[in-house]
Design brief:
Elements (H helix, E strand, L loop, with lengths): L3 E6 L4 H17 L3 E7 L11 H9 L3 E5 L8 H6 L1 H10 L2 H12 L6 E7 L6 H7 L3 E5 L3 H17 L35 H12 L4 E4 L7 H5 L9 E3 L13 H15 L6 E5 L8 H14 L2 E5 L1 E2 L7 E2 L3 H4 L4 H4 L4 E4 L4 H6 L3 E6 L3 H9 L4 E3 L6 H11 L3 E3 L14 H11 L5 H16 L5 H15 L3
Helix pairs in contact: 4-8, 7-8, 11-17
The chain binds uridine-5'-diphosphate.
Family: Belongs to the UDP-glycosyltransferase family.
Keywords: Glycosyltransferase, Transferase
EC number: 2.4.1.-
Amino acid sequence: MKRAELVFIPSPGMSHLVSTLEFAKRLLDRDDRLSITVLVINSPFAPATNHSLVQSIAASDTRVRFIHLPQVHPPPKELFFVSVEKFVADFVESHKAHVKDAIINHVLSASLPLGGLVVDMFCASMIDVAHELGVRSYVFFTGNAAFFGFMLYLPTRHDQVGMEFRDQTDPESVIPSYVNTVPPGALPSLAFSKEGGYISMVNHGRKFKEADGIIINTFYELESHAVSSFVEDEIPPVYTVGPMIDLKGKTPSGNDQAKHQEIMKWLDDQPPLSVVFLCFGSWGSFGESQLKEIALGLEQSGHRFLWSVRLASKDDMPTDAQNLEEILPPGFLERTKGIGMICGWAPQVEVLAHVAIGGFVSHCGWNSILESLWHGVPIATWPIYAEQQTNAFQMVKDLGLAVELKLDYRVGSGELVMAEEIEKAVKSLMEADSEVRKRVKEMSEKSRKAVIEGGSSYASLGRLTEVMIANNI
Ligand code: UDP
């Protein structure tokens, strides 16, 4: 039996590690001829730790092994807050020699042939290592197909214009992977970055074309326009293998576990489709004035709510708010007792699966969108950072799968979204028989069909594994 070893290189950071490992598990479940070595780039800020997820997979699956690369001195922390894309690109690139050494000493010397490197979208520089070693490389793209199209568009545009996007007065962009022309307000902040973020992404976009395949966490039925926009001979084959969702979510411990149980118990007591859930991803947070407006908007909407509140912090991860009575409008907590619940980090996947949830006010991170579609819960869009503006634009304008709350909000803009806008969007989101809700339900069924035998993503994953096994060294 022909077999192959794959080398996975996730970029540092929890969400990319988790989705990459989720994909690794899918591949192994699908084809027992494959084995995987994961090269772990340690977090630039925390000392090398053996993450619990890594430990549990290493202990439970004999076909996955982890090699922790030596700790490398990161770029200055200030760069992280000016341009996270540039910070990550530089940090990853500084691991090239370690990656090459690890593959030569631990993989090529072993008995299994090497089927290729699977590199995270922010590790595109590792495609060079694959070239040096004469092996294949596949990009694992954790965003969606339309945004992958945007990344391909960047170098094409750059060759004509030679500079980053200027500002909101730029003309709309014709990006083939989007149905509509894209206004500057819907572009991600990196498009405007003069601090290296833009040029890092141009370089990634160029590099992607040198890979042997692009693996995207999406499904054809959702993004048929974007997938069809890719010109066959100009880019590597695209494999749509999603939605890949960790439906179990992470197991909480200690206080978290108690809080999660309290949330689920509270939801059990609410009528079906009556609760709007607000949650804004790993980095989403607001200042005090914005939290007040959200509270007023929710109260005025008259709907029940579960609200994951996280407080902005100047130079660190958002934190759970401790003094909500002082921050929120006077009497808000008292008045909404029984109809609303506030939490910190939420068990999002479990929450979205609950029958009581009727709508989701989301920052439009791609995982959140896939999770919400999977469970048939419509979204009201409130993008904040990364590529969330483009995701929101695509969901509302291109696909008609979300209600518009904001499309062009972005962190650091100083904009205050007023209670009336929030109230209006929540009311529209929670309508029982809306067209959006109907379309989301249909897409939910399609997402579930895509990953089972006979589905588009199932077939795509099968084609990918065959290619990986047939082309090893
Ligand atoms: N998430 C969660 N609880 C929270 C916030 C986020 O479980 O309070 C999970 C969510 O289910 C999703 C991931 O964290 O799987 C966020 O990924 P996404 O791509 O949506 O956004 P990001 O955090 O990368 O901006």
